[in-house]
Sequence to fold (653 residues):
Amino acid sequence: MRKLVLIILLFTGLTGFKPNSSHRISGTVYDSADSSAIPGVSVVLKGTGYGTQTDAKGNYSIIVPDDNAVLIFSFIGYTTQDIKAGKGNTLKVYLHATSNRLSEVVVTGYGVQKRKVLTGSVSTISAKSYNSKGLRGKASGHVTLGNALAMYDYSTNAGVLKSYQPSVITDESYKGIEENGFKAVSAEPLSTFSVDVDAASYSNVRRFINNGQLPPADAVRIEEMINYFSYNLPGPTDGGPVAIHSELSAAPWNSKHRLLRIGLKARTIATEKLPASNLVFLIDVSGSMNEANKLPLVQSSLKMLVNQLRPQDKVSLVVYAGAAGVVLPATAGDKKETINNAIDNLSAGGSTAGGQGIKLAYQIAKQNFMKNGNNRVILATDGDFNVGASSDDDMQKLIERERESGISLSVLGFGMGNYKDSKMETLADKGNGNYAYIDNITEARKTLVSEFGGTLFTIAKDVKLQVEFNPAKVQAYRLVGYENRVLAKEDFNDDKKDAGDMGSGHTVTAFYEIVPAGIKDDYSASVDPLKYQKPKPVAYSNASDEMMTIKFRYKEPASLKSKLSQVTVKDEPINLKSTSTDFRFAAAVAEIGMLLRDSKFKQNSGYEQAIKMARSAKGEDTEGYRAEFIKLAESARLLSKTELAAQEDNNVE
Fold:
């Protein structure tokens, strides 16, 4: 009887208990016009700094404190919506394109300015109407952070405040890029470069555009944008590590020119057959990492990688701030709780002794070195080193010394504002590793889960390509992108010359723009005839229908001697519409890249034609990354019109 009374009392108490009303809301954000998903939409809990972004398929997930919470959905070119969370767990949102979105301009206290020169110094802006000369009329509304994004209508010389943008990038560094120009085949018949499978530039460019800014020109590395996407290429069938493919058509931006695509596909090895890994997580915990999109995102990203580890794998954890230290000694991959606890206990503060951290990480990697295994340091940082060896040259020399030990260095970049892309690209290039920029958890999943093998396990190292053009068929050529990977012709046969690596299942695409023989060329430079030397006339063989020969050189992961293979390409271009979807999509990405760089070789490139070609070549797109690119290109088109309008206004002033 007493037990029955206790049960009744307990039940009565529970029925009076009101559970916490916080709950998770998930959903998808669509374009109301065509019901297509919109990636990169900002989803913020009103009144807080807490928020997220939609992923490549337009999906989001966020925890709200109660049913009355309000979520703000915003994306450039669309009307911002405030929506009450309610009691449900699912919320679909349809954003409406603004009717005058082609006239978006940035308004600051100094008047209309180009986005890329804004300094973020404006802390408060109030405006309701203005004209092309700057702010006008009575002040109304209030924005307390960043720069105001307003809608400008040139027909009425008035605008309405739309939303605010976060602080504009002020202290980021990018290595200068001098674009590859056209080379005359008569003078330079050989083109040599190192393969690059990094993709950091694309996700970084995406971050700029989703934040309402066009990226700096030097942040746009076209080859990395192209190689962000996977392509459907057959793997090797001859027992080698890499297969070579080619495709030739007209250049979309100049129908008189040809566009050659060279595609490489590395052999795919099943995860269970991959060699054991000795991984050292080297994590920047300095004060500059104390932001929501830095250390917390690093922690979430690395825990996703930990979930992929096997018992035979080992993980160590090294951190650095004012000094460096070991947080977790080498631990078996199946001790996931131990590893994750060590990651969760990290906190940020102090200066940044990056060089000291790298030295310690290599020391730990050497202590646990696995012969015939995957020995790798994984650096997670914003690149803002300021103590000890910190310059790009210092870092390069340090990494070049350490890579001879057989330990690779991969770099994961995080954050914005003080982001040091130039330094991190140098570290990864010289450390025989790869470089990715992680701007959100979806990108972390792509890099560390979906592309796990390609990111961490090398199939072929020091991969080089050399193309010899037939002067009877080719007048001039230009390598699109790969500016920081160009090699001297003698480097191709030099096994001591470092080059890029390819991982399990990786694909690589490179484009050459070709001026066929006999076509009037506006790009090849001319020089006066020599006075003291009379060049002998060269007889070109027209008997061959070969346009070029592609030579491919690589080393097995444990070898110091390279192997050579080659293929020839005949002068048989196919109609652009008949090319593969991969060819056309990659060409569209290259065209958008040239436009973002404002390349002097963009010729007849245009956002409309590139977007149209990308749409027609989207293909299966199971992960949604190509659809995301199309939306990104559309936003870039709007921003380019904004910048042009701002330039016109500045010229008027």
The CA atoms of residues 318 and 326 lie 4 Å apart. The longest strand covers residues 254-266.
